[in-house]
Amino acid sequence: MMSFYRENARWLFGGFLLTFFSGFGQTFYISIWSSEIRADFGLSHGDFGLIYMIATLASASVLPMVGRLVDVTSVATTSAIVIVMLATAAVTMNLAQSLPMLCLAIFLLRLFGQGMMTHTSITAMGRWYVDNRGKAVSTATIGHQFSEGMGPTIFVAIAVSFGWRESWLIAALVLLLIALPLIYGLMRVERIPRSKAGNDTSSETGKQWTRSEMLMDPLFWLTGVGLFSPAFIGTSIFFHQDYLIEVNNWPPELYYRSFAVMATMTIIVSLSTGYAVDRWSAARLLPIFMVPLALACFVLGTFSAPATIVVFMVLLGFSYGITSTLFGAMWPEVYGTRHLGSLRSITVSMMVFMSAAGPGVTGWLIDRGIPFSNQLLFISGFCLFAFVLMFFASRGYVSRHTAQSAL
User: Fold this and answer.
1) What is the pLDDT of residues 180-213, one digit of tens each?
2) What is the pTM of this model?
3) What is the CATH number of the domain that holds 361?
4) Per-residue pLDDT tens for 48-64?
5) How would you label 156-165 residue by residue, b for 16+ Cβ within 10 Å and e otherwise?
6) Do 123 and 341 form a contact (C-beta atoms < 8 A)?
7) Vertex 192, ends 187 and 193: CA angle to 5°?
């Protein structure tokens, strides 16, 4: 096992860094400045949620077209383009003085941060690895958790020293001076997929689904009910973190430090899930992450003591750890790798769409007097319903694979 990590260190570390630096376009980072943004632009929770939703929906609509880039050019070139554009987005946020500029900044942050940085990383891992795909994907995805664990503390400290706008300018410099040369240097050598049999083309065994074929598959939509819901749920919670801190009277420093708890749990579970995927397949493990997600929402919606933060972060980290690996390993396993960039651009676009809908819908409900705690209890029930649907989807994928193998 150590030989696998040693021999593939450059590609695994490159994938890790792509997801790590995607944090600048993730909700947990943008929402750190939620209070300052709302104060500067005179926005309510619902107003900012609506703007965030519109900008993110626009990025989701563009992603399927931009996402094909990784199918037609190298991972290194794609990474360089995406990093430069994400740095441009950070500068735009620094300069934004009007609502149109704010919308543009969020659009670019979501498209090239949450969308393309993650898409490029996980597409590369899914395409380059066969027998060890689960380990590769889980290693790359923990970059998100390191970013979530380190980012809030570091950049809140920077904002206190320099101001929230200046923190975005610092983010752009970090992307251009550190992320760009490091990731390009690691990814400029393409990896050839290999299986235990040593067949370099083994990653394209079985049916290679096209985008239209995948969208016609009922199992895809059955799976999506659950697999895309964490984006809606997690984004909603982190977008309204200032609201939760205020309503529950939590110490802000305790809340921000608890990100490290979630990140640690996610890393442990993600790496463990990687081993499990390689042993039993992603399809067989598909439904299980919905249970801890349901419990996390129930705890956050029911209790308000400070200890609630820690319990919630542990449960959410457990769910996220499974999801982050499954989301990357699932699609190449069941739909093939030949058109993986095109396929994943659709799935990532849907994930971004759900993350856009979350703040808009929940913020609108908060403005109309429906407490977020009540919304979380409803979401908890939905998670259990999705668990049932994904159980049947899992059975369907396994049965189809068994039938294809028998041919």
Assistant:
1) 999 999 998 877 665 444 443 444 556 788 888 8
2) 0.70
3) 1.20.1250.20
4) 878 888 888 888 888 88
5) bebbeeeebb
6) yes
7) 115
